[in-house]
Amino acid sequence: xxxxxxxxxxxxxxxxxxxxxxxxxxxxxxxxxxxxxxxxxxxxxxxxxxxxxxxxxxxxxxxxxxxxxxxxxxxxxxxxxxxxxxxxxxxxxxxxxxxxxxxxxxxxxxxxxxxxxxxxxxxxxxx
Length: 127
Known about the structure:
Largest sheet: 5 strands, antiparallel
Order of helices and strands: HHHHEEEEE
Oligomer: single chain
Number of strands: 5
């Protein structure tokens, strides 16, 4: 008596064994630890307490912000949820009414800013 599975992948319909699509599916990547690597990345972030800015810090940051224009490249350190993050990129927009600055695609509130550094343009001499 022939095996009940004899017709499944051997016979006139499948002379070379399993169909290609079926064979390929057995080698598909399998993420046994789905979400594990993202969890590890979030745990790598060291939680930092937020620094209270002094009035002098606020004046300094306000002065730095007033000197910026759209397209200027800046390196900005700001508080993001539970830690300080440093981002470098071009200023996309500054919206004083909302007290925000957008660097590339990241919108940052003025009160979250710890420091702003605008690198000197090449060719500009400092004395």
